[in-house]
Amino acid sequence: MTDRYAVFGNPIGHSKSPRIHALFAAQTGQDISYQAILAERDGFAAAVSAFIAAGGGLARGANVTVPFKEEAFRLATRRTPRANAAGAVNTLSFEAGAIVGDNTDGAGLVRDLKNNLGCDPGGRRILLLGAGGAARGVILPLLLEDPAELVIANRTEETAARLALEFGRLPGGAVGVKPDGMGFPGLAGRQFDLVINATSTGLSGGILPLPTCVFAPRCVAYEMVYGRETPFMSQALAAGARVADGLGMLVEQAAETFFIWRGVRPQTASVLAALAKVS
Ligand code: ATR
Questions:
Q1: Which domain holds residue 45?
Q2: Are residues 46 and 58 in the same domain?
Q3: Whether the model pTM is above 0.85
Q4: Bridge partner residues of 180 (DSSP)
Q5: Cβ 115 vs Cβ 121: under 8 Å
Q6: What residues have CB less than 8 Å from 173, skipping those under 6 apart?
Q7: pLDDT of the residue at 35
Q8: How many domains does the chain have?
């Protein structure tokens, strides 16, 4: 009676998630299966339904990756506050009559920063580059760490300003600092202790018009994608920053998801080391 999980995406062939969850399961003695499923671009909901139906009651959950995170948000019948803030879902749990949507991406980033990189966002001046889905997913978890400031800079200034306004209005004093939104020219003369690239230039290879001054002494520059040195990483290295790619975020978001599904938190260091060897 093995519980069944899957990751849905398009493309999905290179996903590391099956390997990561297999390593977590072996380490914690959990009896699960985890497969990668390629869904047609217009067939995400149907693919999830088919997976649940084929599981005969043993389909317990799924990860969701590009390009289906917003659709997974809509598919969920119940959502966590952090999924609502992100407007996207990367983790589904199938419960009796309900599909619960969560988003573990931001928690994964924060855990990687704190536990693996020794870079606690608390009290730091943070610059978040980009205002698309990847950026939105990490804003609330970063704000909850109580940074000294959070600036969202984007090619299209208006999108950054809108996002900053939205997260500045969070109810109940949930967060202490209100984010600022601006275009890249607004960064002239500014310095940050943590610079996070959440634009899609990590994938496309585009070069961001960043003034060198944004990287303060001992700055950590975090690229959300992994597997190669991106132009952002090269810029940051040239400016003397300490650079990290997104492999740790990938492993930590998976650990957070595994904890949601199984109630056990796996150790990530050995998994990260195993993946780093082959990436
Ligand atoms: P994702 O889900 O990966 O965040 P997205 O929602 O399409 O993808 O957002 C892409 C982000 O990368 C946006 O912030 C985009 O800036 P715009 O809002 O101005 O489009 C940013 N981006 C993409 N290509 C870029 C480039 N060449 N230079 C600067 N920013 C870029």
A1: 3-103+249-278
A2: yes
A3: yes
A4: 151
A5: no
A6: none
A7: 98
A8: 2
